[in-house]
Amino acid sequence: NAGVTQTPKFRVLKTGQSMTLLCAQDMNHEYMYWYRQDPGMGLRLIHYSVGEGTTAKGEVPDGYNVSRLKKQNFLLGLESAAPSQTSVYFCASSYLQGGRNTEAFFGQGTRLTVV
Amino acid sequence: GIQVEQSPPDLILQEGANSTLRCNFSDSVNNLQWFHQNPWGQLINLFYIPSGTKQNGRLSATTVATERYSLLYISSSQTTDSGVYFCAIRPGNTNAGKSTFGDGTTLTVKP
Fold it and tell me: Among partner residues B30, B88, B98, which is closest to A48 by beta-carbon distance?
């Protein structure tokens, strides 16, 4: 049971390049999330998904797109990277218990630098 | 949206000391979690505690939902406790999964 796994762990992009971050969870969780963390700050929600085939915007969605074609995977895309997107990205998943969304578990993070 | 305020922002302790970290929130919550972000950036689940009290070794947490705060207690601190402690709140008016993180308390434990 690997939990939540993010790929890649590190990446350097040039401005204008595109890339996709992959998040995979093997816990059969319903909900999945993408956050970004900037230096000295807490995490801010980019997008989230409440189930396969559904996505929704979070607090800071601009410049990102997501897809959840399979329950276990949640992809975060940057179509045209900008230096302002330099950050550490975290994926998380959470489960339903008695119809209630409960504890969230996080991946190890992806450190992205846009130059 | 819900406001989450953590205090103190920074805390420096000698090894062996005890500490209390506080998380205040502005609205009713559906759930609350405490995390430890270690110096390598990894987020470690400490407690899922929408209400009541839980203990795990030297750590314990209490959430008083009616008064809109949660406390994290660290006893007999060790250098490995250093890092940033976050509380994350999911508001009570939705089950959609959105969490709001506080800005964290940075704890430094000196040997």
Answer: B98
Q: Is A103 exposed, middle or buried (0-12, 13-18, 19+ CB in 10 A)?
A: middle
Residue carrying structure tokens 């006893």 = B75
A17-74 pLDDT, tens per residue? 999 999 999 999 999 999 999 987 789 999 999 999 999 999 899 999 999 999 999 9
Window 33-52 of B, Cβ < 8 Å to A? 33, 35, 41-43, 45, 48
Q: What is the Cα–Cα distance from B21 to B74, expressed in whole angstroms?
A: 8
Of B45, B90, B103, the CB nearest to A105: B45
Please give the C-alpha separations between residue A53 and each of A29, A67, A71, A112, B39, in angstroms, as whole numbers.
14, 7, 8, 26, 36
SS3 at position B79 = helix
Contact of B9 with B108, CB cutoff 8 Å: no
For A10, A22, B3, the CA distances from B101, given in Å and listed in that order, are 24, 23, 9
pLDDT tens across B63-109, in order?
999 999 999 999 999 999 999 999 999 776 565 567 889 999 999 99
* Interface membership of B83 toward A (CB under 8 Å): no
What is the DSSP-derived secondary structure letter of residue A15? Answer: T
Instruction: Give the burial class of B68: count Cβ atoms within 10 A of its Cβ; 0-12 exposed, 13-18 middle, 19 or more buried.
Output: middle
